Inverse folding.
């Protein structure tokens, strides 16, 4: 069990939380085409199923992977923020409609050299940020700009921001598989999980207290 997952399990046991991880790559998967929106979307599905939501989409927009919408190359920070704006607006609406806390988690830095034994085996070699030329945009200054630009959108929509960026930045190459921190023996996974779950615990307590005050 990884350091990050161990921390998640321990904190969940202490707080009575259960955590469900649902993977989407770009965030656009959560929003249906305009013609289908009368049927609802995945945001509503998740909001009905969960007591709190922590959301992030960032890395795949800066990666060399094909994008779901043209242009298909990596996005600049400004373009990324524009892509995320409809989703963040939708999350804010779901938070109001379903009375659940929703926050956006920072996009974490990406290992520059794909460090760790898994990289030496070639598992992450095509994501090597030290290659010249690099097919990736996931340099620290770009990912930081992603966070700064999206924070303006979050503030406009009233969605909270959970800063995990500052935790991982100084140790960004300590990833065993050259990409993820909650994997293997990275010391970064535990504090990242602690900060995210601390937000969830605090947000749920605040919500429950507000409900009690409203009905007292």
């Amino acid at each position: 069990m990884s350091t990050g997952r161990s921390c998640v399990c321990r904190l969940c046991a202490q707080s009575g939380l259960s955590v469900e991880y649902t993977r989407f790559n770009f965030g656009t998967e959560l929003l249906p085409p305009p013609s289908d929106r009368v049927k609802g979307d995945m945001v509503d599905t998740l909001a009905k199923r969960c007591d709190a939501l922590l959301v992030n989409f960032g890395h795949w927009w800066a990666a060399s992977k094909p994008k779901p919408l043209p242009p298909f190359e990596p996005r600049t920070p400004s373009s990324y923020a524009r892509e995320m704006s409809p989703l963040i607006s939708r999350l804010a609406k779901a938070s109001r409609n379903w009375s659940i806390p929703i926050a956006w988690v920072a996009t974490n830095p990406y290992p520059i050299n794909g460090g760790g034994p898994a990289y030496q085996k070639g598992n992450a070699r095509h994501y090597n940020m030290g290659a010249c030329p690099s097919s990736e945009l996931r340099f620290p200054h770009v990912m930081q700009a992603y966070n700064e630009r999206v924070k303006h959108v979050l503030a406009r929509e009233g969605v909270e921001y959970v800063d995990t960026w500052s935790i991982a930045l100084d140790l960004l190459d300590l990833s065993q598989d050259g990409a993820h921190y909650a994997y293997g023996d990275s010391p970064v996974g535990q504090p990242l999980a602690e900060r995210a779950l601390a937000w969830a615990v605090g947000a749920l307590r605040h919500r429950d207290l507000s409900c009690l005050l409203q009905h007292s």
User: Anything to note?
Assistant: The mean pLDDT is 81. The chain is about 45% helix and 5% strand. The helical segments are 3-15, 42-49, 59-62, 77-98, 117-120, 140-157, 165-168, 189-214. The two ends are 44 Å apart (CA to CA).
